[in-house]
């Protein structure tokens, strides 16, 4: 049995975007008679800016852009990959798997499939890649992520502060692409991982697929978040299995040089760190400048940590997955 490691990683961020002030102005423009409380989005979520891809951009395009950066740095291409996993909350189509579209755009012929679990999609894809490599099924797995989530933002139909607060979570979402190469290794890069869930809270965050009776088609509606229910679900989720898993790896929270935590509301990062015993100064904060890039968040934090010099070869890293549903997970690795 071999081990696995993340050998390469890249992120693509669209150049266009909106500041929180611009979002407030847009909401006011599209909802005559309602004036958004000034600065509420940034005070409540911590988000200052979110990336917005051009209108005709697909999730697969964002993934391909990130993969292109990874291949350029690696010096190899899709023919050197054994398996491609598309991992994202976003998708181009309901069927087939968006991984096929990504592979076609890359000119690949390797096996493909999708992993979709909201903002934990990439986290879960790494778990899958690690398992397949450890059992000898594949040696090189490419995880491609394209998060085209900004169209889910609700800017219309806001008539009160209550409406605005409930729509607020959708005003933080941001577009991004990410790519990770997971390879077989003689030594454990990925030390171990554990996931858990509180599925009773699934209804707190929903993007409904509804029947449009007039057009007789299915359509996707806006991102709907019951913020208080979501926070309650996170607070009630049992994280003991995750803490026990870290201890089972022979590690304590103080042993990690860098901790990457999925971020939707900045204040909750500190709350979770206190609850889990994670040193807050080890975290990588990307939410303010990049918004909530869904499952591309953890790759973005890893790239940010590497580029800033905080994460170096041999350092210990902890990934913390948090996603609607609710899903939670931890993954320890040696960089």
Summarize the biggest pleated sheet.
Answer: 5 strands, mixed
Percent range of helical residues: 25-40%
Strand order of the largest sheet: 1-7-6-4-5
Q: What gyration radius follows from the Cα positions, in whole Å?
A: 20 Å
- Terminal Cα separation, in Å? 20 Å
Broad structural category: alpha+beta
The number of helical runs is 11
Mass-distribution shape: globular
Instruction: Compute the average pLDDT.
Output: 92
Runs in which pLDDT lies below 50 for 5 or more consecutive residues are: none
H/E element sequence:
EEHHEHEHEHEHEEEEEEHHEHHHEE
Per DSSP, what share of the residues sits in E-state strands of 2 or more residues?
A: 15-25%
Count of individual beta strands: 15
Task: Please tell me about this protein's structure.
- This protein is α+β, with helices and mostly antiparallel strands.
- It is built from 11 helices and 15 strands.
- The strands form 5 sheets. It has a 5-stranded mixed β-sheet, with helices on both faces. Strands 8-15-14-13 form a 4-stranded mixed β-sheet, sandwiched between helices.
- α4 links the parallel β4 and β5.
- α3 (59-74) packs across α4.
- The longest helix has 16 residues, at 59-74.
- The two termini are 20 Å apart.
- The mean pLDDT is 92.
List the helices and strands and how they pair.
Blueprint: E1 3-12, E2 17-19, H1 20-30, H2 40-45, E3 49-51, H3 59-74, E4 83-87, H4 98-106, E5 112-115, H5 121-134, E6 140-147, H6 161-167, E7 176-185, E8 190-197, E9 205-206, E10 209-212, E11 217-220, E12 224-225, H7 227-236, H8 240-248, E13 258-261, H9 266-276, H10 287-290, H11 297-307, E14 316-323, E15 327-334
Parallel strand pairs: 4-5, 4-6, 13-14
Antiparallel strand pairs: 1-7, 2-3, 6-7, 8-15, 9-12, 10-11, 14-15
Helix pairs in contact: 3-4
């Amino acid at each position: 049995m071999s081990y696995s490691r993340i050998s390469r990683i890249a992120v693509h961020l669209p150049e266009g975007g909106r500041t929180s002030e611009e979002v407030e102005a847009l909401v006011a423009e599209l909802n005559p008679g309602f004036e958004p409380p000034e600065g509420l989005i940034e005070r409540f979520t911590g988000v200052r800016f979110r990336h917005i891809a051009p209108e005709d951009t697909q999730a697969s395009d964002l993934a391909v852009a990130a993969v292109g950066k990874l291949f350029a740095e690696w010096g190899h291409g899709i023919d050197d990959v054994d398996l491609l996993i598309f991992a994202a909350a976003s998708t181009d189509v309901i069927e087939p798997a968006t991984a096929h579209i990504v592979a076609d755009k890359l000119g690949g012929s390797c096996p493909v499939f999708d992993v979709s679990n909201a903002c934990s999609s990439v986290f879960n894809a790494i778990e899958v890649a690690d398992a397949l490599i450890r059992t000898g099924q594949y040696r090189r797995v490419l995880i491609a992520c394209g998060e085209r989530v900004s169209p889910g933002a609700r800017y219309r139909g806001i008539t009160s502060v209550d409406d605005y607060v409930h729509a607020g979570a959708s005003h933080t979402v941001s577009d991004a692409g990410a790519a990770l190469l997971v390879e077989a290794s003689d030594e454990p890069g990925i030390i171990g991982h554990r996931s858990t869930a509180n599925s009773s809270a699934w209804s707190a965050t929903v993007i409904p697929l509804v029947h449009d009776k007039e057009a007789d088609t299915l359509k996707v509606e806006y991102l709907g978040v019951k913020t208080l229910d979501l926070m309650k679900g996170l607070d009630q989720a049992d994280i003991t299995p995750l803490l026990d898993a870290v201890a089972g790896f022979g590690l304590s929270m103080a042993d990690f040089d860098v901790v990457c935590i999925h971020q939707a509301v900045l204040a909750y990062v500190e709350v979770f760190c206190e609850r889990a015993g994670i040193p807050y100064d080890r975290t990588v904060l990307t939410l303010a400048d990049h918004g909530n890039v869904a499952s591309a968040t953890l790759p973005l934090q890893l790239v940010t940590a590497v580029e800033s010099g905080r994460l170096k070869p041999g350092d210990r890293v902890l990934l913390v997955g948090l996603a609607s549903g609710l899903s939670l997970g931890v993954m320890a690795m040696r960089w």
